[in-house]
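Run log, item B.
One chain of 452 residues. Sequence copied directly from the ordering sheet:
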Amino acid sequence: MIVGMKPMPLVPRRVSRSKDFISNMPDEILLMILSLMPLKDAVATGILSKRWISVWCNLIHLSIDGGERLDKIVMIPMLRDQVRSMYIKKVNSIIKHHNAPLLQEFRICFDLDCRNKHAIDYWLHFAMKKKVQTLELDFMYHLKYRMSDEYYDFPLHFLTKNARIFLKLHYLRKLVLKGVNVREAILQNILRTSPHLETLFAHNSGFMAHVLVGGKALKLKHFEIKGCSNIRSIYLYEFDLVSFTYKGPAIDLRLGHLPKMKELDICQGAEGLQNNIFRQIASCVSYIQVLSLNILQTERLMLNSIPELPNVKKLRLTIGAYNDKCLLRFTYIANACLSLETFTIQLLWGSPIWRKRKARHFSTPTRPYNNLCLLELMGYYGRMSDFELVAHIIENAVALKQIVIDPRCQGRIGNTPLLKLKKNLKIEETARTYAHSQLKSITPQGVKLLIL
């Protein structure tokens, strides 16, 4: 600036509104942005400008649920058919405008059943032509139960005007079916025609009775069966299965040679953990690293002859706890896990009633938990049985670093968590107070006690 000259006033620089930098980005960048949005929001960008009209049509992830509006009114019986029709039109419109040659993910999530077979078959045909890699049909989205004959039947083939087209999902890597009937022949066809399938979930399949899966040619690594009320037996053998989950009625469960098995989650209905469960899984106990067991009925359970589980590092027990009965017997399972590092216990109390009683003298394992670093106990109410269990672990876990206590109720009444009920808020506060008073004094120095 020249000396003595007055400075010029700053004039705000005009920003050109005609220039839309985002719209001028390459399609690949715009698709990356849209893929981070819910699908309904991505579709809505089509109204922004001509540039945006068809961008979303090239998305390779299509996850279509009903949206908040449809979710709210679908539970009204007199409106259910109308709402389903609206949802079907929504999915058909998305499919009609989709331009990408391939699909990485196609997810349908709504309350649909066998009456919607024509539409669902059409969607499956679309996914097959798009060489879909992840396919999810969740028709139990708003429901807990439906009669088996009302479920949509997963097809073996499609009937078209010109020919019968067999369902072949050659590119499929993950298949999730909830509220879909999968019969034995269909299951075998899925495995036979999906050579790259690694993950298979079947929930609430009404007509699945006998599951026989095996053979070295299988690529299946993660297998999950839940809520299949008519199932009678499962036999898995000689393939590279990594994780298996079964939650349903007590069955004939046989696990053959599965050398890659690392994670096992078993819940056999109201019967809970039966004495023969360890015989059923005997062939893979030396491989398992993460073990989850539901033990809902404990009256006649004998747990002092558990086989050694040499590689289990994480153990989760969901226990049906009643009338403040001693829980120390379950430490036999933890003691059998020679490499145990994390021990999680979820207590499902029938009623949160405190009763004064003295500590019981119960025969417990004498081997210390040499590697146990983390103890998590959910549903701690401060009963003597809760305290006995935690005190036993503290006394015998020489490497313990942290204890996490969750006093919140773990049970449910219908579809409502007990925690949401007003009377249980007071119970939770009382349980939290008990946890502080009981456990702070016995927690060793250097061990972190976290009470949620």
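Observations after the first pass:
- The chain has a mean pLDDT of 83.
- The CA atoms of residues 359 and 420 lie 32 Å apart.
Flagged for discussion on Thursday.
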